[in-house]
Amino acid sequence: MDLSPKQSSPSESTRFPDEVLERVLALLTSPKDRNAVSLVCKDWYTADSWSRRHVFIGNCYSVSPEIVARRFPRIRSVTLKGKPRFSDFNLVPDNWGADVHSWLLVFASGCPFLEELRLKRMRVTDESLEFLALNFPNFRALSLLSCDGFSTSGLATVATHCKNLTELDIQENGIEDLSGDWLSCFPENFNTLEVLNFSNLITDVNPGVLERLVSRCRSLKVLKLNRTSSLDRLQRLLVSAPQLTELGAGSFSEELTLQQHAELKYAFGLCKNLSVLSGFWDASALNLSAVYPACSRLSFLNMSYTALQSPELASLLPHCPCLRRLWVLDSVGDKGLEAVGANCPSLEEIRVFPTDPFDEDMLHTVTESGIVAVSQGCPKLHYILYFCRQMTNAAVATVVRNCPDFTHFRLCIMNPGQPDHTTNQPMDEAFGAVVKACKKLKRLSISGLLTDLTFKYIGEYAKNLEALSVAFAGSSDLGMQYVMEGCSKLKKLEIRDCPFGNVALLSGLERYESMRSLWMSACNVTIDGCRSLAREMPRLNVEVMKEEGSDDCKADKVYVYRTVAGPRRDAPPSVLTFSGL
Amino acid sequence: MEGGVAYENGLNFKATELTLGLPGSGETEGQGGVRNNNKRPMPTPETNEEESQAHKAADRGSRAQIVGWPPIRSYRKNSLQAKNSEGEASGMYVKVSMDGAPYLRKIDLKVYRDYPELLKALEAMFKFAAGVYSEREGYKGSEYVPTYEDKDGDWMLVGDVPWDMFMSSCKRLRIMKGSEARGLGCGV
Prior knowledge:
The structure holds 2 protein chains of 2 kinds. Chain A is of the alpha/beta class. Chain A is 31% helix and 18% strand. In chain A, the strands form 2 sheets. Chain A has a 21-stranded mixed β-sheet. A two-stranded parallel sheet of chain A has the order 5-7.
């Protein structure tokens, strides 16, 4: 089948020359739209292939780099996601795979004009970073989130060789932090940086080098400092770069003199365009007041690395009238959340992380009252992530009555299997209320004591659900069956520690090919069950991670995903691959 | 860690019943947690104070954490741990509980210069009045009485020993109901 665009086919489906079609399609940027377009007819498929500039690959094993490069020879930007999400919580062995190197090798010859690479949960070595820096002359933007396998030496090669770098975004990676010298590797005349995020790193970068770099890069919009960056340095950087739109402050705990405080406050006041603020490790209440002048246009405030108390938050929020997204630690307490409800009428997203996730004695730092208070004051809320130690069905029902527009509802009651603490009933009705009220719900994470009834509700009402995360829940196979039968738009399902076995696994036969992936760990699935699944569905990869010392027949961790690339060849010995091919 | 458990008749409430036994509240303390939790049962209120505290301390040590739970990214965990260990180096954080209050607090003892300052802070934090301390009669007549557990595991009245000795030996604070505090303290 010749898909060359040079042959203009005289079919009725297109009256435009290919070049015109390509130009028109180029105006469509969303991957979903592009995918839809490519299915219309062969000509449109071809035009899309030649004009596609950005590819999003949600599972790096669903397709091979060769297929991607062959189909989209002119891509400029690639987003690749690798390991299953539960690898963030240490549930996936280190050597599992998702190494980016094979992709780089293919792209170097197939898509040499690649400019942007965004990786999430991939393995990236220093060797790969060097290869990237040396083989893609137009390379401009690198973003690494939750990746591992590289060190600051790799960053040094990128800084040295990527002459046109505009973005270097290093976030939450397992990076080996050897020294801060990498920053000095940017040439003295280098000035194209627009985004610099090194908040991940501990070792301090060379004094003066950062300041000079920032003053040279007049287009710098995003600057996120690391924890060891002092307030003094911050003050000088702000004066030098008041055009910033996103700032990650460093440590915020130093004691300042009155003079220093005034200077810092003045520097913040120069920044009229800040819409995102983050960082602030260990912020003291006094120092925080220096930030107020910069908050008038703030839309996203991330204070989740400092244990803010409720009075500090209550003092800060009135300065942020435009706030749409807020991330905090539960140290703010219910009182702090009341302040959120009172001061943030435009709030759309709130995330409350635990300060002491493993200390079970630290009870009740935020409770059901807090989440209710936020919902009362913030009717536009559509995204919530809430870690707590107690919850009630009634409170959740109230929250979704106040805010029916939730698209993302992630509730983590930290003690597994905990019931409603006032009635001692399961939390079924809470999530029932969520799925009944929130018709636009796309992502749901459930917790607490839950029976099959929760899943019945989900299957019946959550018709737009795309991602579901389940832990320590359910009573029988029926639970998972309800979901597999009812949620036709489901893309990602992650399950751990639930009583779902082979019957449940196989109930999803009709569903898995339209999903990105399924994860099941510490459930009742056996190797035989996995084998049956693989046999029935040859276009799925069924992988089992065996744990040391477990029974031969048990499938400890199961990862199932659709693929056009066949079983992968880079799996470590602890991963068994079952394939129907 | 076993895989999922099928509940035999419906919900198996008893095993999963989580009654929050507050220190000294006198309520029946049920078994906490779920099948995957390696907690030992919490002590019944009849055991005397020292024993149950020792139980709790040992319990904390042997309690196995569930892998990957709660679902916090390693990066965030490490960030918090670094913060906490720094805190331990520079501050002296002790937990404070109060009988009947559904929450615990952590305070940094280094912030206070003497007993009056500490007491004022505790009274403000938990909304109670400790009354006046006297060496012979403790906090006689007060509804709530501040006590602390020292390095030897003994429960003492706050104020019984010199401030410096208190600072170096206090492990945790408990604001006890006045009626329960009889018999505490030295010299009685």
